[in-house]
Design goal:
This protein has about 110 residues and is of the alpha+beta class. Helices cover about 35% and strands about 20% of the residues. The chain has a three-stranded mixed beta sheet with strand order 1-2-3. Strand 1, helix 1 and strand 2 (about 35-40) form a beta-alpha-beta unit. The chain starts with a strand and ends in a 29-residue tail after the last helix.
Length: about 110
C-alpha cells in the first residue's frame, strides 16, 4: 500500500514521525498489508529536493513504533492544561495573534 502526503514548505524531521504513524494506521484499514510505502511530495520545492520516501515494514517496524508512540501518548493523556507549545510554526496557527486569535504567545 502506498500513501502520498502533499506538503508545502520545507522538509521537517517530524514528517518522518508522521510517516511512521501512517505506517501503523494504514494496515488497520487494509488488513494483510505487509509494507506501507510512505511518500511526502513537497509541491513548492525544486525537482530533486521535492520528495521524501520510505518504507514501513509492518512485521519489522510495528512493535518498535508502537512502543515509542505509546510512550508519547501517555504523556499527552496525562496533560490537563494543554499550554501552547511555542515554536517556529506558530505563525501558521489560526490562534496566532497576527490572525486575530486569542493566543498571547509570540515568536
Amino acid at each position: 500500500v502506498s500513501s502520498i502526503d502533499f506538503k508545502t514548505g520545507r522538509k521537517y524531521d517530524s514528517h518522518i514521525e508522521q510517516g511512521e504513524a501512517y505506517g501503523m494506521l494504514i494496515p488497520s484499514h487494509y488488513p494483510g498489508t505487509d509494507v506501507v510505502e510512505v511518500e511526502f511530495w513537497y509541491v513548492d520545492q525544486p525537482p530533486g529536493e521535492n520528495t521524501l520516501t520510505f518504507e514501513f515494514d509492518v512485521a519489522r517496524d510495528l512493535r518498535i513504533a508502537r512502543q515509542k508512540w505509546e510512550e508519547r501518548f501517555k504523556e499527552m493523556a496525562g496533560e490537563r492544561a494543554w499550554k501552547p507549545s511555542v515554536n517556529e510554526k506558530c505563525r501558521f496557527c489560526n490562534f496566532h495573534m497576527s490572525k486575530g486569535g486569542p493566543c498571547k504567545e509570540d515568536i
